[in-house]
Amino acid sequence: MPATIEAVEGDITRQDLDAIVNAANSSLLGGGGVDGAIHAAAGPSLLAECRELRATRLPDGLPTGEAVATGAGNLAARWVIHTVGPDARRGQTDPSLLASCFSSSLDVATQVGARTVAFPAISAGVYGWDVHDVARVAVQTVREYVNGTDQIDLVRFVLFGARAHEAFAEQLS
Ligand code: APR
Question: Which of 61, 81, 124, 169 fits 134 for a cystine, CB–CB 3.0-4.6 Å?
Fold first, then answer.
């Protein structure tokens, strides 16, 4: 059965799926946007797990384009998959870096056994990418990924606002 890929308008912290993806920064120590919302909803245990990652596996932080899983604290999801999008403000405009956020996050989902995954529009906020470019890269990458595996059942893009939702819906139509 091929995986379902869908786009909805909403708040990613409200998604009752196996894993939700966080648009983090390399420090993994929280921030604004999706990062701030996920940490606020998950509670302090999420930051504690991220601090533990920094103290052990990721002493220099999480590199752009890579992904790592933690628990999800008080969230309905079982895992939060943290990834770091490319930052256009710092000249990181290479689409393959953004594509890697989506494919690496699905690799991590597969590794932990998460079959349903929610993504935000990574890099389309503070990191300054145009949401239409993000939608194109995200949908292309996820389509290619799910066509090559039977480990993923659902990928849901969860978008803030009509413009972002339309950008993704257009790519999925
Ligand atoms: N649910 C879904 N989408 C959200 C939510 C939410 N609760 N909050 C924000 N968004 C949307 C934004 O509107 C934007 O379209 O997520 C997209 C990504 O925006 P950011 O969260 O700013 O992420 P990004 O552009 O990748 O920048 C990452 O911002 O929050 C800091 O710590 C983070 O330094 C990192 C940087």
Answer: 124
